[in-house]
Amino acid sequence: MKYLNIGTPFETDSIVDFENIRPVESLSDLLDGTGLSCDVKDVTTLTYKFDSNDKVYGLGENLRGINKRGGIYESFCTDDPNHTPDKRALYGAHNFFIVDGKKSFGVYIDFPTYIEFDFGFSHKDELKVSIEGKDLRLYIIEGDKKTIVSKFLKAIGPSFLPPKWAFGFQQSRWSYPDNKAIREIADKFIESDIPCDTIYMDIDYMKDFKNFTIDEERFPNFESFVKDLKDDGFRLIPIIDAGCKIEDGYKTHEEGVKNRYYCEDSEGKPFVGAVWPGLVHFPDFINPEARKWFGDQYDFLIDKGIEGFWNDMNEPAIFYSAKKLEEAIEYASNQKGKNLGIYDFFKLKDQFMWLSNNKEDYQSFYHRVDGNTYNHYDLHNLFGYNMTRAAGEAFERNHPEKRILLFSRASYIGMHRYGGIWTGDNHAWWEHLTQNIKMMPSLNMCGFLYSGADIGGFGGNASGELATRWSQFAVYTPLFRNHACMGSRHQEPFSFEDDTTQVTRDIIRYRYAFITYLYSEFMKARTNNTLLFRPLSFDFEDEHCHQVEDQLMYGSGIMLAPVHQANAKGRYVYLPEKMLEYKIKSNDNYALELRESGHQYVQVQTKEWLNYLRQGTLLILNEVKNKVEDISVETLDLIGFVDKDASYQVYSDDGISRDAEASYFDIHVKYDGQIHLSHTGDIGCKEISYDIVTTDNKRHKGVYHV
Ligand code: GLC
User: Which residues contact 685 (CB under 8 A, 6 or more apart)?
Assistant: First the structure.
């Protein structure tokens, strides 16, 4: 991996491990062997002539396919709740991509504002990246695509470490507006015997949407409420928004203004925008002192027993700025009484349509970093990243012993060291389940291991069938959270028909059986700089695998083939080689069948979902409990597809401390006409019940006493 500073790049701290990265002197040194050209101007361009078979991977949180070729994308953190196919940017800015084909190389553009990635959209054979500036750090990563990813992951540093309970099921809604509503949801989970570890608190827990306050009327005796719920096994996760309400007497407002911790306008006054609380100021997270100050505020809630947070509206979302709203109103009042032509009417409408997240607003406030002043627009993509960094750094400083759950909506490369991400305001559309499937590998490529989408969709109304299919896929995403928008149909597991509740209970129970495996695979990906979710083409050379966009390789040797279409009672699956089909029918009922390579149509009823195991793969399941912390590995079930031998390493630690000591348990299987199990290590496992299919199509069941 090598890099070149072009001009004077802003230090983003996205890359932290320079051990295997060498600086080079010139663009020709940097681009040597890639076929890329770079033209440094006010808009710097990178161009490449595609070969007909070239694919493009990466860009983290963005739209369309796993192979990004043929599309046009933007890097500009954007609060847009309509993720339709014509959109070019979402909440994250992840400027890492790989060209894979005749030549293979990775590119990371460390540049904090607008970039356009035209991957053969304007001209099918041309890659053109337009970078809005000439001060950037450009990295080139050599090797095949797996090597490129692992070098990049090493360079950006390991993922943040979530507490193990954060791998459990999480229930959210905008909103459970008071303690009664939250209590009812918790009771419903208990009554319905559905596992769940956390319940979310959206903006209504705050007093008038002020960060680091509690609405005492809705949540009297907050501390004892938090404790009561925890005693019942539910952790409460409050939201924190980027904008802080302007209000005399509000501590966060007054302290921030007094110390100049808020972003300022060109006159040096705190910039005024509007979000949920009405008029707000935005903390200058990029300024290290302001970042420290803001991070320390989280202790207000931590001291009350809170152990996790989600950071929102941090692109930052600006519904309107005071200045632009005034201009729009004035424009509108000047039109009063006029007989408007249709273009004049559109112009009038546009005054209000373009109020939110307006580029001119982003250009009208400033950050103060190390004595220098920077226009926000020029550092836009670093804002959400640094909000989450503020929290992450404070947690490490103030609570060094303990893991605290944290994830964010906006992000930049490097933010994964402080928190995960959720993919924002998706919809209850089948297309968004498909998008969720396609996005997981690219999120992982950019370091975001702890990630997931709002299960069931945030906006709009989910059917029981959509929620079911979505939950089946989300069994595999580390963040396993059902969240929905105000006004939408309720989509908690018990909100649909009785049989849907039954099926969802089974899916969630399966997830709890899968936690030991998931946690082991998460930790291995984190330590080894590998991907939890992979495109098929990362594991198989076969050309057809490059075209498969709705099956994914997962962990060690599992292939996921989720159903993501309405009314489907089955799906086509492409098997690159002979595999063991593992059809899950409920949390404790499944079917195993050997399948030959090639295309197959497989029946998958609504309550069922499909996995495939490669030869040599062992999958372990623990006993189901309703809380992650109650899960033990004393007895394990093992499902495997074995030729002569196979092994699996289980990872275990205390799940809550930052520097937890790791222990390992290796399970070995040998087959010589008979199955022999053995093990090394000790994590407290006493018994393994196995169900193994061997390549001669024999099924072997038995119990191994450790
Ligand atoms: C934003 C978030 C969403 C949240 C809502 C209200 O739209 O993306 O998750 O529920 O704000 O806080």
Answer: 633, 634, 635, 636, 650, 665, 679, 706
Q: Kindly report the backbone phi and psi dihedral angles of residue 242, in degrees, each rounded to the nearest multiple of 5, phi listed first.
A: -70, -40
**Sign of the CA dihedral running 628, 633, 637, 638:** positive
Q: Around 621, how many Cα atoms within 13 Å sit in the side-chain half-sphere?
A: 22
Q: How far apart are CA 565 and CA 384, in angstroms?
A: 34
Question: How far is the centre of ligand 1, averaged over its atoms, from the C-alpha of 199 (Å)?
Answer: 15
Q: Whose CA is nearest to atom 7 of ligand 1?
A: 425
Pick the last residue of a domain from 156, 176, 211.
156
Per-residue pLDDT tens for 101-119?
Answer: 999 999 999 999 999 999 9
- Residue owning the nearest CA to atom 10 of ligand 1: 174
9 plus 136 within the same structural domain: yes
At residue 260, the 3 state secondary structure works out as coil
The closest-lying atom of ligand 1 relative to the alpha carbon of residue 425 is 8
- The residue whose CB lies within 8 Å of the most ligand 1 atoms, and thus the one to mutate among 91, 239, 411, 421, is 239
CATH of the domain at 391: 3.20.20.80
Q: CATH number of the domain at 140, please.
A: 2.60.40.1760
Kindly state whether residue 97 falls inside one of the protein's structural domains: yes
Q: How far is the CA of 628 from the centre of ligand 1 (A)?
A: 26
DSSP class per residue in 93-147:
E--EEEEESSSEEEEEEE-SS-EEEEESSSSTTEEEEEESSS-EEEEEEESSHHH
Proportion of the chain above pLDDT 90, given as a percent: 99
Cα angle 314, 369, 241 (rounded to 5 degrees) comes to 15
Residue ending a domain, among 518, 542, 567, is 518
Checking if the pLDDT of 236 tops 90, the result is yes
Q: Please say whether the beta carbons of 112 and 378 come within 8 A.
A: yes
Q: What is the pTM of this model?
A: 0.98
